[in-house]
Amino acid sequence: MYRKMAAMATAAVLAGGIAACGDDESGSSRPAQASKPAPVAQIDPLSGRQTAVALDAGLVQALGTLKLTLAPVGNSRITKAGVAEFPITGGNVTYYKPGSVSPYVQGEIDHDGSGLSLTGGGKQVELTDFVVDPGKSVLTGKVTVDGKVAAESAPLFFLDGRTLQPLRAKGSTAVLEGTTVKL
Known about the structure:
With about 180 residues, this protein is mainly β. The chain has one helix at about 55-65; strands at about 5-15, 40-45, 50-55, 70-75, 75-80, 85, 90-95, 105-120, 125-135, 140-145, 150-160, 170, 175, 180.
């Protein structure tokens, strides 16, 4: 069973792009279709604003109990409201009408130069350079322990797109909200 990392990925706001994961409503994967329907949106290369994740209060409390300090790394930040924000630095995304293909959000969303650190017990672990793969419903990243790279591309969080809200546009910006991030 996964422990809930975040209440919801509250916003993935991109300039002309999208970021989140999705599957059909049943949560099952279907085999690749011979010919895919036309995508609703296709962005390559991806340029954007940020991926934002509302940190679950239970997670923050558990970290405090363990005497671990959570902090932003590089270009990321954690707001007073408990939302971790990671600038989008590149990637590509294709969004299909939900139910027309599975997964209906495909691609890669890069977050180079940002991440989170956990400090406690004289050790510091940094999780950085996040890559969101909405098709595989996983977020990978670099893991560094006390300044030494432990893994270049480790699976860090799993994404549950069953709560994903429909794509909406705000001017030239596309927004996807509602993916749950799990540890």
